[in-house]
Amino acid sequence: MAHNDNLYIVHLSIHGLIRGTGLELGRDADTGGQCKYVLELVKALGRHPRVGRVDLFTRSIIDPRVSEEYGQPLEDLGHGAFIRRIEAGPRRYLRKESLWRYLDAFLDKSLMLFRETGRLPDLIHAHYADAGYIGSRLSTLLGCPFVFTGHSLGRTKRQRLLDSGADSQASEKRYNLSSRIEAEELALDVASRVVTSTQQEVEQQYSGYEFYDPDRMRVIPPGVDVSRFSPPGSSPVPAHITEQCDRFLDAPAKPAILTIARADEKKNLATLVRAYGESATLREQANLILIAGNRSRIRDLNPGARKVWTELLQLVDDYDLYGHIAIPKHHQPDDIPAYYRHAAASGGVFVNPAWTEPFGLTLIEAAASGLPILATNDGGPRDIIANCENGVLIDPADVPALTATLERVFGRPDEIARWSENGIAGVDRHYTWEGHVARYLEEVGELVDQISQPNLITEKFRTSLPLADRLIVSGLEERLESGDAEAIAETARIVRDNTPQLGFAIASGRSLGAARQLVEELGLPRPTSSSPSWARRSTTAPASSKTPRGPGILPTAGNPTRFSKSSPNYPASNCRRRKGVSISSRFPTTTTRTPHLPGGRCRNSCARAAFPRRFSCRRGAFSMSSRSGRERARPSATWRFAGGFPSAAFSSTPDVAAITRRSPATSSPSWVPITLPS
Fold it and tell me: Residue 281: enclosing H or E segment and its boundaries?
C-alpha cells in the first residue's frame, strides 16, 4: 500500500558481538545464530522498496579484547540499513546475563536517538528477552506496533536444566532465569505480533507462558543467502580449507561428517564424538570434521567453551580418533560456505546434535550447499526436513541410535545423492531472504495502520513526545474555569504551533473519562503522550489518590495551575532538579502484570510498578540514588514523569508547571519559565 512506503523499522538485539561483516560466530555463547539472523534480516529489509530505513540497535562495546568496530556509534550496511550502537552500562563486553541492570539506560538512550534523527519508528521488532523488555517499553511510550521474537525461551531453558539434574538455585544465579521469564511475559503481553521460525515453538514452547496467545503468532522461517551457500561445482573449494582438514586425516578422501557450532554445552557436540568413536565401522566409512569456533589456547577460552573443548579432546584421546577427526583451530566467516561445499563434494552429511534447536540456520546453509542433514528431533529441524525431504531426525540423547543411523546413511550413497538434490530445491522454494521479507512485511504491514496491543492500546495514537525538548505541565480542576479563556486559547495555540518541540501534559488525580471531559470542556490542548497510561505515582502519594489511565495524564494531589493573564509567569523557581539520573521512562505502562526486573525491590509489595536497581519503594518517601548523589522527595505527593521525555524533571509540588530544556552543548537540564503574552 502506498501509505506504507518509506517505512522506518527498528530492530533491537542487545547482546553479543554484531557488525556488518565478519561476524565472529561461535566466539562465545552470545554470538550465534540470533546475531546472524537479525543482521541478515535488517540487510534484506533495507533492500526492499517499501522500506525507507531500517536500524539495528545494539549495545556499544569499547573493550581491548574485541575489535574497535563494536564501539562505532553508526555503521552503514547499505541500502538504508544501519547498525546504531548505544552506550549502556560499562564500556566493556558483558555476557547477556549481566546486562539486565542496564536495560533502562539503553531505553533512555534509544529515546534520545529518535529525537536526534527527528523521526519515530513505524515498527519495533525486539529479539530475545532483554530486547523484548526494551521494545515493549518503547512501543507503549511511542505508540507504535511491537513485534517480538524470543529465539530461545527462559521457561524452556529452566525445564531443561531441571531435567538434567542442575541445582535450581545455582541455575537461577548463573542465568537470571526469573528476570528473563518475567521480561518474556511482558513482551508477550504487549506484542502485536510474535514471529517464530517453527510451528513447534508456537505449540510447545510459548504455550507455557501466561500471556500465550497463538492468534498473535506467525511462523515465518528465516532465509539463507543463496549467493554465499551453493553446491559443489558452483565455485571451487579454496585450497586452504582442504589443507586445514587434510592435515588431521589419514584418509582425507573419505566422506565427511561435518558439524559447525559454537563450543557450547547445549550444542551437545560430545554426543556426536561418542557416536563416531563407538563404531569402528563408521570410522572406516567416514571422517569427522568439527568446526567449533576459534581458539588459540584452550585455557584462554571462556569457562563454558573451555569445558566443552576439554571434554572433546578427552574423548578424542579415549577413542583414539587421531587420523579420523579434523578439528581446525581457526577459520574466517567467509570460510564456512567452503566447509559445506568440501563436505558435500566428498559425499558427506551435516549433523546437528543440539539438545534443543529453535530453528537452525546451519541446517539451511548445509541444505543450500547440497549437504544432507541429520538433526535433533526438536524445533526447526522438524519443519526443515519436512519441507526439504533432505535428511533424518535424530534423538540427541541416544548415542547408539545416532551411531546406527550414520552407519545406515553411509551404506546408501544413492540416498545421500537424492537428499542432496532435495535440499537444494527445498531451500529455493522455502528459505530465501526475499521470500522471508515479503511474508514479513505482509504480516506486519497492517500493524502500521492499526495498532493491536492487547490490554494497552485500544485506539490508534501516535506521539511526538520523544521529539520534544520542552514540556508544559498543567493541573486539572474545576477552578481552571475561572481562569482567562483567552489565555487558555493562547496556550493551545503555542502548543499547536511548536509541536513537536513543545509537549503538553496534564497532572490530575481524576479518572481518565473525567479528565478527558474536562480537557474538552476547557478547550485545553490534547496532552502529548503515547499510550493510555504513561505515568505512575510514587508511594509518597496519599492512599486515596486515584491513578488515571489516559494520554498525558500525570496523577497528582494538590492545587491546580491557573491559566490567567494576570499571572503569566509559571513559578519555575520552585522546581527541584533531579541530578545525575535520567528519569524518562522509569515506570512501565502495562495494565495487567508488570514484573519486578532485577535490582528492583519494593518493600511495600507494590504490584504495579517495576523499580530499577537505583530506585527503592518506601513508605512515606521515594528514594532515588545515583553516582552523583542521593535525593529523597518530601513525603507529600511526589510524581515522576514516565513518558519517554529524556530531559524532563518535575517539581515536588503539584501546582508547578514549567519547561525543561536540554542544552546541546552540555546535555544538562535547565528550567525555563513560560511567559504567555498578555
Answer: helix 280-285
Q: Which of 178, 35, 33, 187 is nearest to 100 (CA)?
A: 178
407, 413, 416, 422 alpha-carbon torsion, rounded to 10°: -150
How far is it, in rounded angstroms, from Cα 116 to Cα 17?
A: 25
Q: Where are the alpha helices (DSSP H) in 164-224?
A: 168-175, 177-190, 199-200
Phi and psi torsions of 97, nearest 5°: -70, -15
Average pLDDT of the residues in 541-566: 34
Q: Quick one: how many helices (H) and strands (E) in the chain?
A: 19, 25
DSSP secondary structure string for all residues of 324-344: TEE--S---GGGHHHHHHHHH
Neighbours of 650 (CB within 10 A): 26
Q: Is the peptide bond before 500 cis (omega within 30 degrees of 0)?
A: yes
> Is the CB of residue 186 less than 8 Å from the CB of residue 132?
yes
Which residues, other chains included, contact 324 with Cβ-Cβ below 8 Å and sequence gap of 6+? 249, 250, 276, 283, 287, 288
Q: Which residues contact 104 (CB under 8 A, 6 or more apart)?
A: 585, 586, 612
What domains sit in the chain, N to C, each tagged with a CATH number? 2-223+435-449 (3.40.50.2000), 239-429 (3.40.50.2000), 465-672 (no CATH)
Q: How many CB atoms lie within 10 A of CB 605?
A: 6
Rg (alpha carbons) of the chain, rounded to whole number: 28
- pTM for this one? 0.65
* Contact indicator for 332, 294 with CB cutoff of 8 Å: no
208-237 per-position pLDDT tens digit: 999 999 999 999 988 888 778 999 988 889
